[in-house]
Amino acid sequence: MKENKEKKEIDEQEEVLNEPQESEEEENSNDSQNEETGDEENQEAIDPLEAANEQIAQLNDKFLRKVAEFDNYRKRTLKEKAELILNGAEKTLTKILPIIDDFERAIENGKKTEDVETLREGMDLIYKKFMKILQGEGVEVIPTTGEDFNTDYHEAIAMVPGMGDENKGKVIDCVQTGYTLNGKVIRYAKVAVGQ
Description:
This protein is α+β, with helices and mostly antiparallel strands. The chain contains four helices and six strands.
C-alpha cells in the first residue's frame, strides 16, 4: 500500500510537472495560430486587387502627365514655327533696309542735279550693294546669254529662227533674269532661244 501511495504521489507530481509544460505548449501553439491569423489579416490588408488598383492609378497618373507634357511641347513647337514663318525674313529685310536708304538719298540728289552720269553711277553702286547682300543670303543669278537652253533653269518665251547652227538651242537673249536660292530655282529665267 505504501508503494501505491508513493506511486500515486509520484504520478501526481509528474502530472503537476507535465501540466505547466502542456499549458506552455498550448500557449505556444496558440501564439503560432495567432501569428498565422495575423499573417492572414496582413495578407487581407494587402489585397492583390487593391495593390493592382493602386498600381493602375499610379500608371494612369504617369500617363496623364506624359500626355499633358507632350501636348505642351506640341503647342510650344507650333507657336515657335508660326513665329519663325512670320519673322523668318527679318534678318534679310534688316540687311535690305540700307539699300532703301541709298535709294532715298539718290532720289533726293537726283532732284538737285542735272548730271545723268552721276545718277547712273549712284544707281549702279546701289545695284551692286543690293546684289552683294542677296548673294550673302544664298541668292544667285541664273546665267543665260550664250548658255545652252536648260529647262531646269530657263523658260523659253520666244524661238528666234535663222541664228545659225552655232546658236541652235542656245539662249540668245534674256528677257527676265532668273534666280536660285541655295541651288533651288526661285524664278526661272525668261529667255529667247535660237532655232
